[in-house]
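ok new one. same drill as before - structure tokens go in, u give me an amino acid for every spot. 194 of them this time. try not to just spam alanines like last time pls lmao
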């Protein structure tokens, strides 16, 4: 038996389709004891995305970005967020999309990106699966200032930080973005081993 055998979708209603899709879904779920239970959930479908941490092993540095995020602000975060470069796939492969996003946001044209894992970031309400990448960079790979696309509302500052400083920023709360924390911790365990 698969999970598909334990789900019976009874109704789906579109609540919003402004920028992404928000649906109300009513379904029957077969519980572990064999009984069926009707449940209602709201599901936010924003598509899938990719994120990347550029690193320089010799200099022990990483490249991050800092930008305004309205949802974080509305939830009480009164500062810009420090993050890894990321973007929606928009019908591209994860590898191609993250190379384009990294160049757009950080100004670095990376050559070899390496996928390390995939993860659902908020599976209780959001369908998005995030593809995580790392890539080594050299200063000569920087072909522009980065900063994103102003017409899309992006106003991105590029940060090159020592890995130890970035990890300390997790501990003191200056880095509060989950995808960034995951990639920095991956880098600490697998790339910048001491």
């Amino acid at each position: 038996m698969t999970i598909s055998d334990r789900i019976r979708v009874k109704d789906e209603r579109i609540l919003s389709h402004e920028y992404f899709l928000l649906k109300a879904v009513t379904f029957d779920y077969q519980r572990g004891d064999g009984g069926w239970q009707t449940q209602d959930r709201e599901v936010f479908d924003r598509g899938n995305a990719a994120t990347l941490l550029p690193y320089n092993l010799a200099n022990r540095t990483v490249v991050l970005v800092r930008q305004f995020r309205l949802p974080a602000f509305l939830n009480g975060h009164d500062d810009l967020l420090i993050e890894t470069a990321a973007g929606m796939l928009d019908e591209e492969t994860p590898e191609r999309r993250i190379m384009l996003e990294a160049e757009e946001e950080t100004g670095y044209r990376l050559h070899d990106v390496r996928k390390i894992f995939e993860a659902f970031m908020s599976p209780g309400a959001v369908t998005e699966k995030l593809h995580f990448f790392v890539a080594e960079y050299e200063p000569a790979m920087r072909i522009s200032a980065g900063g994103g696309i102003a017409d899309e509302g992006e106003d991105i500052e590029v940060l090159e930080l020592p890995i130890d400083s970035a990890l300390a920023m997790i501990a003191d709360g200056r880095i509060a973005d989950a995808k960034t924390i995951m990639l920095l911790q991956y880098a600490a365990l697998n790339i910048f081993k001491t």
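The CA atoms of residues 153 and 175 lie 22 Å apart. and btw Strands lie at 7-16, 21-30, 36-45, 49-56, 61-67, 81-83, 85-88, 113-120, 129-136, 157-162.
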